[in-house]
Amino acid sequence: METIEQRLKSKNIRITAMRLLVYKFLANKKVAVTLSDLENTFDKVDRTTLYRTIKTFEKKDIVHQIDDGTGITKYALCEQGCTCAMESDLHLHFHCDHCHETVCLTDYKIPEIKVPIGFVSKNANVVVKGICDICNGS
After folding, report:
1. For the segment 26-50, what is each residue's pLDDT rounded down to a tens digit?
2. Which terminal residue of the chain, N or C, has fewer Cβ atoms less than 10 Å from its own Cβ?
3. Which of 106, 43, 114 lies closest to 76 in space, CA to CA?
4. Residue 99 counted as an annotated binding residue
5. Would you say 89 and 123 are in contact if contact means Cβ atoms under 8 Å apart?
6. Domain membership of residue 15 as a residue range
């Protein structure tokens, strides 16, 4: 299994203590997180450093951004080998109306979406809303 350091190096990301901490934090989360979640976890760290770390991870396909309709951008780690390509890597997200958590449903891929001639699609985001398995008692 690839280590965090190996994954970052394979994406040409310089390894820093903060990048390792943020990656480990995201890897231990089962739900998508906000920039505020990161700030609250690393309260002694400059907000700009966290923002730059997330943006670097996003640019290098380490994390993806999720718009779950709440008006607050959330982030989650990409799967190994993800390039955030429309054809192969897009998946469903689920937002729980009860606990307000958003989770990636990576096993549920978004089928290819065709757009009219002349249109160029760059991203797609499908969010299913309802009650998660935990809140539902399953």
Report:
1. 999 999 999 999 999 988 889 999 9
2. N
3. 106
4. yes
5. no
6. 4-137
Top-confidence residue, 57 or 1? 57
78 known ligand binder? no
The single residue listed with the structure tokens 């903060």 is 18
Contact 61, 133 (CB under 8 A): no
Known binding residue 82? Answer is no
| Residue 104 among known ligand-binding residues | no
* C-beta neighbour count of 59 within 10 angstroms: 11
CATH of the domain at 23: 1.10.10.10
Total domains in the fold of the chain = 1
**Which residues neighbour 12 within 8 Å (Cβ) at sequence distance 6 or greater?**
60
pLDDT band at 99, cuts 50/70/90?
Answer: very high
Judge residue 106's burial from the number of C-beta atoms within 10 Å of its C-beta, 0-12 exposed, 13-18 middle, 19 or more buried.
Answer: middle
